[in-house]
Each structure stands twice: as structure tokens, then as C-alpha cells.
Design a protein that fits this description.
Layout lengths: L8 H5 L32 E15 L4 E25 L5 E26 L4 E26 L4 E27 L6 E26 L6 E29 L4 E24 L2 E5 L5 E19 L3 E18 L4 E21 L2 E12 L3 H4 L3 E5 L2 E4 L7 E14 L4 E13 L1 E8 L5 E8 L4 E9 L7 E18 L2 E20 L3 E16 L2 E20 L2 E12 L9 E14 L5 E8 L9 E5 L2 E7 L5 E8 L7
Parallel strand pairs: 15-19, 18-21
Antiparallel strand pairs: 1-2, 2-3, 2-29, 3-4, 4-5, 5-6, 6-7, 7-8, 8-9, 8-10, 10-11, 11-12, 12-13, 13-16, 14-15, 16-17, 17-20, 18-19, 20-21, 21-22, 22-23, 23-24, 24-25, 25-26, 26-27, 27-30, 28-29
Length: about 650
């Protein structure tokens, strides 16, 4: 029960073959049957994890034909609790203090299978075949009690809820690609054909008892009880193909052209049943819907590259000719819409001198509302919160511009890198919320203009070889925000985050290493209907590794986190997390090892978290793993096939 669910990314990458990207259709509905996806309990509670797997790989004909295959099985049982407290402000100055306590348990069982096979047909061509699938089923149980008070400290509502659910899902994806190079330099042809399937079913039994109080007196004036079964059946499937050609026009110019086609179906049947005499058989038409969403897209793209020694320029665009068909099967209503979506891109790279580069880029892309956002359905597991889809949502367009600078000196070991970007979304998809005096909310998706966002990063490091030292310093900033509608009023939320970090590393290979890294973080949240809030925190991390012998290694890492009290939180939060391990290397070439680890030596780990954003302040605590001892024995008895 350590929370470790399997191999790490680096360990897994030794045994997993090449994955593939889904052919994009410009709707923003990108998905991937990625081998690295895995079920996760997200650190909430105490998990009991059982996992295993098998890997087989081989190569034939002097390594030209390669096969990778993997099978993984995993079961997770987790139990936990969560306490939360939040403050929300409305445009008229009304404020709510929301508190809740919950307990939950979950079970998930999954099986995954994947395979990749590469077959060169000759010295210029290769065929790659990839398949993967996933079977999963799970169960959840959740109970909570919550209450809301207004700014006058009067109780406006309280609720007791219970939820039990079950789910199952199936995924399968495949890709076949053909790539050919020609004798003429720069001429290539590639063809890809792929399909994707994702379907499943969920049953959620929701029970809640809700009390509503007069916001002026705090006296009880209404009660209601909800006892429902919500059944959701979904099916997502797609088929796509793409042909791409590249051609060298001259010593300086290269042209690439592509054409593709993709069709995608998303079907969602959502049914709500009331409990009638102990049976969930009373179908509620107003909370049920059978909705299909079909997208057919033709994709045309081209890009032109101009390359000289000191400068490289690439400019191009993709054009998506997209046809939407939305079908509300309950009322036999069919809506068709056609769009031309653009995705222009420009990249300019300056090679100023050896290992010194400057690049400028711009990209634009249309994004579409999801099927869930479009489905004209009232979704609610509790009368305190209702969400409504909007079939009239329009597509938006996102602009992104970036600048990159990097400089590296191999002789001195100096490195300087800088990055900045700005982004903006036209016709963004946001929430329109109506909240009453008893803190009951109804939310619907709408289109609204966005707010420009910005990211920036600067890092410098230098190596002192004789002293075995490498100091580095970095700063970063992030600015983001959104517009929304709350009780008929447009509100603007803006958030700024800045950090400054320093690190000093001392490394004496195979003998001793030490690292110290302090950092400061600053957050500012601003809303048009609430006061500006600021928080400051600082962290300090110390890492040490000592070689007691050539095969015996002692390691330690300790992290200090300090969050002082401020205008939003009237108490400070400080924590120290200290881990250590002793590892013995075994066998020839250190192929085996035995390691004893101690996690959270001081038994200080906590699930506490707090944040600010816009008109809300939030803090929570949850059950999490504290101190434990772990003995690990490993043997890497194989080498990966490249």
C-alpha cells in the first residue's frame, strides 16, 4: 500500500514499442490509445494495488523486422476521506462559506494489451502496424455531508448524500502506416490508416436529503429528497486516413503536402430513473436524452520550408472542411452545420552561432465544443447543482505566439535558455451560472471572448568542473484568466503566478553528491467582483547520495515547504518530508539490486491543499499515505530492442 502502481515512465519506456498519434481533425477532440495511460487513484486515500505484466520482443532478418508486445493487468482498491472548506462571492456582495466532509472507496480492474510490428519491404520502404486495447471495470461508493452559510452566518442549506456506482469500458485502437523514401533526396511518401473505439456503460445510484433555510433568518423553510438511478451509455468511434508527400524543390526549398479524411461518431444515451416502490423504473424524460454527434472532416495541408545556414523558415496551414450532424433522437431533431477550420503556422529559426539559436513561431487552431457540452441535457446528482448543455455553441479559435532562445557552451558547461509565449482564444467556451440566495446553482455552457494569457521562463546554469559544482538560477511567470457570466453579470477573473528558483549541485562521481534547491512562489488572483488576493510560499530541497562502497549506496532527500498566513488564510502551513534509501547493487554489470526505502521518515505527509482563484478561496484535506518501509528486489535480465 505504497501508492506505487507499476513501472515508472523511464522503466516502461525500455519495453514499450513506438506509439502512434491519432490523425487530428481540427475539432479539438484529440485522443490517443497511449500505452502509458493507466488507471490512477490520484493519491486520494490508502490504496491496495496488485499489478503484473508480461513483455515479449524480438527481431528477425538482421534486426530489420521488430516486434514489441505487452500485456498488463492491474487492480486497485482505495479508501479515503476528504474535508473541504471554500468561500465564494457573488456580484451583489453575497458570500457563501461551503464546508463538506466525505468518505469514499473505489475498485478498478483493468487489462491492457498492445503490440507493434515493423516490416521493411525493401531498403526504401517500411510498414508499421500498431494495435492496443483496454478492458476496465470499476465500482465506487461515496457519502458526504455538506452545508453552506451566507455572509450573515445564517445557514442556507445542508445536505447528506450517498452515491454508489459501477462502470465498464472497452477501448481498441489500431494504426497501419506505410513510409517510403526515394532515391531523390528529400522525396518521401507516407500513408496512414487508423481506427479508434471507446465505449462503455455507467450506473450511478444517487440519494440525497437536502434542507433549505431562509437566508434572512436561518429558519428551515423547505426539504426535498432525491433518490435516482442515472445510467449513461456512450460510444465513441472514428476512422481516418492520411496521405503525405514531401519534395525537395531546390537546395533551399522543401515542400510538403498532405490530404486526409476522418469520420467520428459520438453517441450518448443518458437516462434518469426515480425510485418507485423500491425499483428504479420511473423514467424522467426531462433529465434523460439520447444524442448522436457525427463529424466528417476533409483535411488539406501544406507547408514550405526555406533553409539556409543562418536562418530556417517554415510556413504553412491546414484547412479542415468539417460537417457536423447533431441528432436529438428523443424528438427526432437533426441539425447540420458546416465549418471551414484553419490551422496556420509559422516558424522562423535563427542559427546565430554554434549552439546558439533564436526561434519565433505562431500557430492558430479552431476548437469545437464537445459532445457533452452540446447535448441538451440537464445533468444533476443533487438539486444544489445542475449543469445544462447548449446545442447552439459555436467553434472558437486559439492563437499562440512564442519566442525561444538557447545558448550552450560545451567547453565551459554554461547553458542559457529563455522562453515566452502569449495566447488568446476567440469565442471561448465558458460557464453561465445562476446562483440563488440558498446557494443553488444552474450552469450552462456559452460562448464568450477570452483573456490573453502569457508564459515566460528564464534559466541559467554554469559548471565549475574543478570544483565539481553546478549552480543554476531560474525564474518563471504565468498569467491566465477567463470571462464568465454569474447571475447575469459578466465577471473577469485573472491569475498571476511567479517563481524564482536557485540550485547548487556538487557531484563527485561514484563517491558523493549533494544538492540544495530553494525556491519562492508568488500568486495573485484578481476578480471584478472580489478583492485581490495574494499568497507567498517558499520551498527548500536537499538531496544527498553517498557511496559507502562501489555497490552500496545511501541516498536521502528532504523537502521543506512553508506557506505563511495571509489575507485569505489566517494560519501558516509548514511541512517537512524526508525520504531515504539504502541500495545494494548485485550481479554482473549491476543487473540486480536490493533496496530498502523509508518514505516520510518524520511521518509528516499530509493531503492538505489550499488555493485561490477569482471570486473563490478553497482549502481541503484528505487521507494520504504517510510513513512506510519498502524492500525492493529487482533484476533487469533483458536488454531492450531498439
Amino acid at each position: 500500500k505504497t501508492g506505487k502502481e507499476g513501472l515508472s515512465y523511464n522503466e516502461l519506456s525500455k519495453y514499450v514499442g513506438q506509439d502512434y498519434e491519432m490523425i487530428e481533425d481540427g475539432t479539438g477532440s484529440f485522443s490517443s490509445n497511449n500505452e502509458y495511460e493507466n488507471e490512477n487513484y490520484y493519491g486520494n486515500g490508502l490504496p491496495a494495488v496488485m499489478s503484473g505484466g508480461a513483455h515479449y520482443s524480438n527481431k528477425w532478418k538482421e534486426g530489420k523486422q521488430k516486434l514489441f508486445s505487452n500485456y498488463r493487468i492491474k487492480q486497485i482498491n482505495a479508501e479515503g476521506w476528504n474535508n473541504s472548506r471554500g468561500i465564494t462571492i457573488l456580484p451583489d456582495g453575497t458570500g457563501f462559506l461551503n464546508q463538506s466532509d466525505s468518505r469514499q472507496s473505489s475498485y478498478n480492474f483493468s487489462q491492457k494489451l498492445s503490440a507493434n510490428f515493423a516490416v521493411p519491404t525493401d531498403s526504401f520502404s517500411i510498414i508499421k502496424i500498431s494495435v492496443n486495447g483496454n478492458l476496465s471495470d470499476g465500482r465506487t461508493s461515496w457519502s458526504s455531508s455538506s452545508e453552506s452559510k451566507n455572509e450573515k452566518d445564517f445557514l442556507v442549506n445542508n445536505s447528506n448524500q450517498e452515491n454508489t456506482g459501477s462502470s465498464d469500458s472497452k477501448k481498441f485502437g489500431s494504426n497501419i502506416s506505410y513510409q517510403r523514401k526515394f532515391r531523390k533526396e528529400g522525396r518521401t511518401v507516407s500513408l496512414a490508416v487508423q481506427q479508434d473505439f471507446n465505449g462503455g456503460n455507467t450506473d450511478n445510484y444517487n440519494y440525497s436529503q437536502n434542507n433549505y433555510y431562509d437566508p434572512l433568518t436561518g429558519l428551515l423553510n423547505k426539504k426535498d429528497t432525491l433518490d435516482q438511478l442515472q445510467n449513461s451509455q456512450w460510444l465513441n468511434k472514428s476512422f481516418a486516413t492520411k496521405l503525405a508527400v514531401t519534395e525537395k524543390l531546390s537546395d533551399l526549398l522543401r515542400l510538403s503536402v498532405e490530404y486526409g479524411w476522418k469520420t467520428m461518431l459520438k453517441a450518448n444515451k443518458f437516462k434518469t430513473f426515480n425510485n418507485e416502490n423500491g425499483k428504479y423504473s420511473d423514467l424522467l424524460d426531462t433529465l434523460s436524452n439520447n444524442y448522436d454527434f457525427v463529424v466528417n472532416t476533409n483535411i488539406a495541408g501544406t507547408s514550405l520550408s526555406w533553409n539556409k545556414k543562418k536562418i530556417n523558415i517554415t510556413v504553412g496551414t491546414k484547412v479542415y472542411f468539417t460537417g457536423f450532424k447533431q441528432v436529438n433522437n428523443d424528438v427526432s431533431l437533426e441539425t447540420r452545420r458546416n465549418f471551414i477550420n484553419l490551422a496556420p503556422h509559422l516558424n522562423i529559426r535563427f542559427n546565430l552561432k554554434t549552439y546558439t539559436n533564436l526561434s519565433l513561431s505562431y500557430s492558430g487552431q479552431t476548437f469545437q465544443p464537445s459532445a457533452e457540452q452540446l447535448q441538451p441535457l440537464r445533468r444533476s446528482s443533487n438539486p444544489l447543482y445542475v449543469q445544462i448543455g447548449n446545442p447552439n455553441l459555436l467553434p472558437g479559435f486559439r492563437h499562440t505566439a512564442t519566442i525561444n532562445y538557447s545558448q550552450y557552451n560545451f567547453m565551459k558547461g554554461n547553458n542559457l535558455s529563455a522562453y515566452a509565449s502569449i495566447n488568446y482564444a476567440d469565442n471561448n467556451i465558458v460557464s453561465k451560472t445562476t446562483t440563488d440566495a440558498q446557494n443553488r446553482s444552474i450552469t450552462q455552457y456559452i460562448n464568450l471572448g477570452g483573456i490573453p494569457g502569457m508564459n515566460g521562463y528564464l534559466n541559467y546554469s554554469r559548471q565549475y568542473k574543478k570544483l565539481h559544482l553546478r549552480p543554476s538560477v531560474s525564474v518563471s511567470i504565468n498569467s491566465s484568466g477567463n470571462n464568465a457570466i454569474l447571475n447575469g453579470e459578466k465577471i473577469k477573473n485573472e491569475n498571476f503566478h511567479g517563481s524564482a528558483n536557485f540550485s547548487l549541485k556538487y557531484d563527485l562521481p561514484n563517491k558523493f553528491s549533494f544538492g540544495y534547491a530553494p525556491g519562492v512562489n508568488y500568486n495573485r488572483s484578481k476578480s471584478s467582483i472580489a478583492k485581490t488576493r495574494e499568497t507567498i510560499s517558499h520551498t527548500h530541497t536537499i538531496n544527498t547520495t553517498g557511496y559507502l562502497s562501489k555497490t552500496l549506496v545511501l541516498s536521502s532527500d528532504c523537502a521543506f515547504n512553508f506557506q505563511p498566513k495571509n489575507s485569505s488564510f489566517n494560519s501558516s502551513f509548514n511541512i517537512i518530508r524526508w525520504n531515504a534509501s539504502l541500495e545494494k547493487k548485485l550481479l554482473k554489470n549491476d543487473k540486480g539490486f536490493a533496496k530498502l526505502s523509508v518514505n516520510d521518515i518524520l511521518n509528516n505527509n499530509t493531503g492538505y491543499n489550499r488555493s485561490i482563484y477569482g471570486n473563490s478561496v478553497y482549502e481541503s484535506d484528505r487521507l494520504t499515505i504517510k510513513r512506510y518501509f519498502l524492500l525492493t528486489i529487482g533484476w533487469n535480465f533483458s536488454t531492450s530492442i531498439k
